[in-house]
Design goal:
Elements (H helix, E strand, L loop, with lengths): L1 H15 L4 H9 L3 H10 L5 H17 L1 E2 L12 E7 L3 H5 L5 E6 L5 E5 L4 H7 L1 E2 L1 H14 L4 E6 L3 E8 L4 E6 L4 E2 L4 H5 L7 E4 L4 E3 L8 H7 L5 H16 L4 H19 L17 H6 L12 E3 L3 E2 L3 H6 L1 E7 L4 E5 L12 E2 L7 E3 L1 E6 L4 E6 L5 E9 L5 E10 L1 E3 L4 E8 L4 E3 L8 E2 L8 E9 L10 E7 L8 E9 L3
Parallel strand pairs: 1-5, 13-20
Antiparallel strand pairs: 2-3, 3-4, 6-7, 6-10, 7-8, 8-9, 10-11, 12-17, 14-15, 14-28, 15-16, 17-20, 18-19, 19-27, 20-26, 21-25, 21-28, 22-27, 23-24, 23-26
This protein binds zinc ion.
């Protein structure tokens, strides 16, 4: 119970830092408030302050803060590997980093330190971390914009924020790592967390807000073994009396009214829906899996039979040529009669998926950091597979020349295996993957085939990203990393 009490005390001490007016001014200077306010005004329905909060959440995640599982090397920017914890130095201690993670560079071997700062002011500069840093810095920025905030500690190792909505007269759950607002059941229903204590701290009070975050109050209650419920209620009440004895009477009355309203809200058990059912998004897949926060269905191996087959049109048969290409930037397939494929022309099929015969655990990845787009396998799977089918059908023609351009990119020990499957069902491996087309002589005289790729290998957390198909910069609107040209001949002749 002493440990519990000291956590409560330090939670209260922590949020006091948000009241520093100079630091608040510094935080405000970093927020593009005019831009966010005008965006907020354009949001249709909600209250303007509530809308601004949503804009802040989205700006914070997209433009301001970065997630950091393991930092890049300070010296050469290469990948690092964890090598345990170290003691903080003086400068790190000054910014309340009681824990410092150490990383060794995989390239130059030097050591990079990742101090876990608790000082919200330094986080305005470092702008990186995990949920602790994210919630701390976001809460501080909201406070600087004159929102009433709570810093919320979940005893099962997560941290987020609550912001008071004057319009709705209640506290809104905000998770800056996930850019989620008002989805309190997402941890229990989506991430599969076994919640116990969730305590919120603001400058004026402590609140046990556990019940907002659970639809299974009995289960949660059975896990609360750190202290008696009675002790907790009494202790929180006592601490709140201490804090509020310094507040004016009308403010205390407001806080008490809110408490009564909040307790009523906690008694109404709601069922999770929509977004709340999803697994965690922030952090690498391995990190999330270790924490068991992937959600129920995130690891799957599902073969999807799309069944699309490319067949020549009457015009293409007459011309003796059929050409299909795909642009990941437009996410569309095009058909053409000549060399000039223009994305301005109407796409033949919209979406990579719609043009497939089948696929297993592959998706189209848009990397906003690097502004790249490509197909890769789903996180957490070992193999992804994808197949396109071509069939000349009943026409009296067969392939005389097949030119295939299928570019793939690999990193580390990632692999992409290209093959063709001819009607007898055997897969013949073909050395595709280049950015140039090659002639596949195995297809001469054939009428139907499948083109297949398997994505496998890769190292570590991001193994799934180490084998990619069609990697293209998002700015490259005229790039076609996939082009299939089939020239026909009369098979009767
Ligand atoms: Zn290095």
């Amino acid at each position: 119970m002493t440990a519990f009490l000291s956590r409560l005390r330090s939670g209260l001490a922590h949020v006091k830092q948000y009241e520093d007016l100079l630091l608040q001014a510094k935080a405000r200077s970093l927020v593009p408030i005019d831009l966010l306010s005008s965006k907020a005004k354009n949001r249709s329905k909600a209250d303007e302050r509530d809308s601004l909060l949503l804009e802040l959440l989205s700006w914070f995640k997209r433009d301001f803060f970065r997630w950091c599982d393991s930092p890049k090397c300070d010296f050469c920017n290469a990948k690092t590997l964890p090598r345990g914890m170290g003691p903080p130095n003086e400068q790190e201690l000054r910014h309340q980093a009681s824990r410092v993670e150490l990383y060794a560079c995989t390239t130059c071997g030097r050591e990079t330190r990742f101090p876990r700062y608790n000082d919200p002011a330094i986080l305005l500069e470092t702008r990186r971390g995990r949920c602790g840093e994210w919630a701390n810095c976001f809460a501080f920025i909201c406070r600087a914009l004159d929102y009433e905030v709570r810093h919320v500690l979940d005893w099962t190792d997560h941290v987020w924020v609550e912001v008071y909505s004057e319009a709705q007269q209640r506290w809104l759950h905000c998770d800056p790592c996930e850019n989620k607002c008002n989805k309190p059941l997402m941890y229990e229903a989506g991430w599969g967390k076994k919640l116990s204590y969730i305590i919120a701290f603001s400058k004026d009070e402590i609140a046990d807000v556990t019940w907002r975050y659970s639809a299974k109050h009995d289960e949660v209650r059975s896990r609360r073994k750190e202290c008696s419920e009675e002790w907790l209620v009494r202790t929180i009440h006592h601490l709140n009396q201490q804090i509020q004895s310094r507040l004016p009477g009308d403010r205390v009355a407001v806080l008490q009214q809110r408490t009564v309203k909040e307790l009523t809200e906690f008694l109404t058990v709601r069922l999770a829906d929509g977004d709340e059912l999803q697994g965690r998004e922030s952090g690498s897949e391995a990190w999330r899996r270790e924490r068991g926060e992937l959600g129920k269905e995130s690891i799957r191996s599902t073969k999807s039979q799309v069944g699309y087959v490319f067949t020549p049109s009457q015009d293409e048969l007459t011309n003796g040529l059929m050409a299909v290409c795909y642009s990941p930037v437009h996410d569309a397939y095009y058909r053409c009669m000549s060399d000039d494929i223009l994305p301005e022309s109407a796409p033949y099929i919209r979406s990579w998926r719609e043009g497939l015969f089948d696929y297993t655990d592959v998706f189209l990845k848009e990397e906003s950091d690097w502004e790249m787009v490509y197909l890769s396998r789903v996180e957490g799977t070992d193999v992804g597979e994808i197949g396109w089918k071509f069939d000349l059908g009943g026409a009296d023609v067969s392939i005389s020349c097949a030119l295939l351009k299928c570019s793939s990119t690999t990193y580390e020990n990632g692999k992409v295996e290209w093959s063709i499957r001819i009607s007898d069902g055997k897969d013949v491996s073909i050395p595709l993957g280049d950015s140039d087309a090659i002639e596949v002589t195995e297809l001469q005289g054939k009428k139907t085939f499948e083109l297949r790729a398997r994505l496998l290998g890769g190292r570590g957390d991001v193994a799934w990203q180490h084998s990619q198909l069609f990697r293209t910069p998002l700015s490259n609107k005229n790039g076609f990393p996939f082009e299939i040209t089939l020239i026909f001949e009369d098979s009767g002749a």
